User: Fold this.
Amino acid sequence: MTTDRKYDIVIVGGGPAGLTAALYAGRARVRTVLLERGAPGGQLLNTEAIEDYPGFDHITGAQLAERMAEQARKFGVDIETANVTAIRNGGERKRVETESGTYEADFVILTAGGEPKKLGIPGESDFQGRGVSQCAICDGAFFKEQDVAVVGGGDAAVEEAAFLTRYARKVHLIHRRTHFRAQAILVEAARKNPKIEVILNTIVTEVQGDENGVTGISVKEHGASPRLLPVAGFFVFIGFQPNVQFFDHREHPKHDALNFLITDSTMETSVPGVYAAGDVRSQLTRQITTAVGDATTAAIDAVKKLEARKHQLTPVPVDAYGESDNLIIPAH
Ligand code: NAP
Assistant:
C-alpha cells in the first residue's frame, strides 16, 4: 500500500456533482483530489443528448462531462482514476481507501451517485441512451408522437408513465404482477389516462433495435408465448440503489429507508466532515441541475470550515432557518 496522499478535500465520484464540487474547491484554491473509478462524467456518459441543462439547448452527455472535467482541472484539481473501497472517519482527518492507495483529507464530499436497477435482459445495455432510458424528464421529449414502454410497478414507473404521455402517442405500462406496488391514487390516474395501456402479469425479455435505436421489445405474459411490442423508447423504473457501500456500519451516516444519505442544508451528513451531494443524497428528485446545486453548497461549506479550521476560527453555525450571516467569530 502506498503512503497516504494528503489533501484538504477528497471528492468521491466524478459525475456532475463531483465535478462541480471540484470546480468550487479548485477555485477556492484548496488542495483537492477527485477520485473516479471510470472516466469522469458518471451517468452523463450513459446519456446521449441533454436538453434540460440551462445554457445548452442540446449537448451530449459525453461533451458536458468533458467540459466539466476540463473546467475543474483548469483550477488545479487532481482528477485521478481510483476505485474507492472505504471511507473512514478519523475525527478531524478522514481516510479514503482505494485499491491503489489511501488518501487523507479534512473533508470528504461523497458524490458517488447510484445505479438505476437494470433488468439484465438482452439488448438493454446495447441500446442504453439510444432508446433505453431511466429518466423520463431527461429523455421523454425525444419520443414525441411515438410509442414507448415503461417497465415497473412502483411509484416511479406509474408516475413517469403519466409524465411520458405529454410527448408519446402511447405508453405501454408493463408490470410483472397483477397488482401495482405504486400508490392507489397514481394507479387510478394512470388507468384513466387514455394514452396509457396497462399490461399486467407480463415480463420484458429482450430489447430489439437497429442502427437508429430501439425498434421494439419482446414481452411475455405469464403462461403465454412471447410477442413483439413495437416501441421507439423503453423506460426502466424498477428501483435505484445509491452507492453508499464505503462506510463501516458503526460510522455509517444516517440514511433514509432506501439508503439515500440524509444531509442538513449545507449537505453535511450526520458524520461531521462528510458531505453528500447529487444522486446519493436523500431528496425529491435526481437531476443534473440538482446535483450541481447540492455540490456547490457542499464545496462552499467545506471550504468555509476548512478556512475556519486553518485560522482557528469558529464558523457561525447555520441557524434554524438555514441562514447564516457568514461571519466568522474567533474561538477565543
Ligand atoms: P420500487 O418502489 O422499489 O418499485 C420497483 C418496482 O419495480 C416494483 O414494482 C418491482 O416489482 C419492479 N421490479 C423490480 N425488479 C424488477 C425486475 N427485475 N423485473 C420487473 N420488475 C421489477 O421503486 P421506485 O418506483 O423507483 O420507487 C422507489 C421509492 O421512491 C419508493 O419508496 C417510492 O414510493 C418512492 N417514489 C415516490 C414517488 C412519489 O411519491 N410520487 C415517486 C417516485 C418514487 P414488484 O412489485 O414485483 O417487486
In short: The CA atoms of residues 33 and 78 lie 5 Å apart. The longest helix spans residues 288-310. The chain has six helices and 23 strands.
